[in-house]
Structures are given as structure tokens and as C-alpha cells.
Design goal:
This protein is mainly α and about 200 residues long. About 80% of the residues lie in helices and about 0% in strands. It comes from Nocardiopsis lambiniae.
């Protein structure tokens, strides 16, 4: 019996992963409003009952997809930050990695366009705070502790930076120029530098 239970659990998890994969693909290609549950279950080759076993409906499936996308972006940001050791370079590397990751077409549409519209601003903002704002707050707190930033409340700064980067990602998503990312990063990096004192700008401790 334990073996049979384990097999069923693995089958359920495979079904859930398939629904997430196909739901993500359809939401990214067509947008939330144009995707129906019939299309999802057909693409996933499962029954509608199987979908309802894992999700309450389309909004619940979309939220799970959004959580997956946000986690992937957070992993990319963390990976870029962890690749360098200086606290200031960790922050800037993570911010640039966010812009690159968030401008991928599927990420942009799911995370920045449909996310707030489908789940509502308050819910989307809570999810954003749990991911990008939290990481920014931690990075800024480390910079204050390291003396790279002057002592100041970091929470409002983290929210302002998160909003600026989300808007920058949305703007970049509609551009096709080869230098657009560098131009946006030049502006954003100057905004980041403005947080530092003149003394700190020459010290990447």
C-alpha cells in the first residue's frame, strides 16, 4: 500500500506540474482573458475534474503560475547577486538581472501586465512585496550595515526602487532597440548611486 500511495502522489504531482506548464504557456501566448479552462485541460491532456482537484478555477491556476514566475525571477536575481562579493555590486547586479528577467515576454505578461489586473492591485502588491521588495529590503539593509549607505529607513526606498524597476521592465518590453536595456540601466544606476554619499561612491566595501 505505501508503494501505491507513493505512485499516486507522484502522478498527482505530475498532473499539477503539467497543468502549470500548459497554463503558463497559454497565459503567456494569449493573455489571461483569452484562455479558458477547456483549453488548459485539452493542452494538458487531463480532465476538468483533475484540474479542479488541484486548483479552484482559472484565477487559482493563474495565481500558482504567477507564484512560479516570481520565484524564477527571484532565483535569477539571487544568482546574479551571489556571483559577486562587494555589497554594492551585489545590489546593482541583482537589479540589472531583474530587468533582464522581467522583460522576457512570458514573464512580462504574466507578472507585470495580467498579474495586477487578474488578482487585483492589493493581492498582486502583497505577492510582489513577498518577492522583489523583500529581497531589495534585505540588500539595502546589508548596505546600511556595511556602511555603504547612510543610515535611513530602507522599506520606503525598497518600494520606490521596486516600482521603478517594474515600470522600467514594462517600458523595455515594448522596445526593440539593441541599446534600450543599456540606456535604461544608465538611468537606473544613476538613481541607485544617488542613494550613496560622495564618500561611499568611491568605496565598494
Amino acid at each position: 500500500m505505501p508503494e501505491a500511495t507513493g505512485i499516486r502522489a507522484r502522478q498527482r504531482e505530475r498532473t499539477r506540474r503539467t497543468l502549470l506548464r500548459e497554463g503558463r504557456r497559454l497565459f503567456a501566448e494569449h493573455g489571461y482573458a483569452e484562455v479558458g479552462l477547456n483549453g488548459v485541460v485539452t493542452a494538458a491532456k487531463v480532465t476538468k475534474g483533475a484540474l479542479y482537484h488541484h486548483f479552484d478555477g482559472k484565477p487559482d491556476l493563474f495565481r500558482a503560475v504567477l507564484e512560479e514566475v516570481q520565484a524564477e525571477v527571484a532565483d535569477e536575481v539571487a544568482g546574479a547577486a551571489d556571483a559577486v562579493s562587494a555589497p554594492w555590486e551585489r545590489l546593482t547586479a541583482g537589479c540589472r538581472a531583474f530587468l533582464v528577467a522581467a522583460t522576457a515576454p512570458d514573464v512580462r505578461r504574466i507578472m507585470l501586465v495580467d498579474g495586477p489586473a487578474v488578482l487585483g492591485w492589493s493581492t498582486w502588491r502583497e505577492m510582489d512585496e513577498a518577492n522583489s521588495v523583500r529581497h531589495l529590503t534585505e540588500a539595502l539593509t546589508d548596505l546600511v550595515a556595511a556602511g555603504v549607505l547612510p543610515p535611513r529607513p530602507v522599506e520606503p526606498v525598497a518600494h520606490l526602487l521596486s516600482g521603478a524597476m517594474n515600470e522600467a521592465a514594462l517600458w523595455l518590453a515594448g522596445r526593440t532597440g539593441p541599446d534600450d536595456l543599456d540606456e535604461v540601466w544608465a538611468v537606473l544606476s544613476r538613481m541607485l548611486e544617488s542613494l550613496r554619499t560622495d564618500r561611499d561612491r568611491n568605496d565598494d566595501r
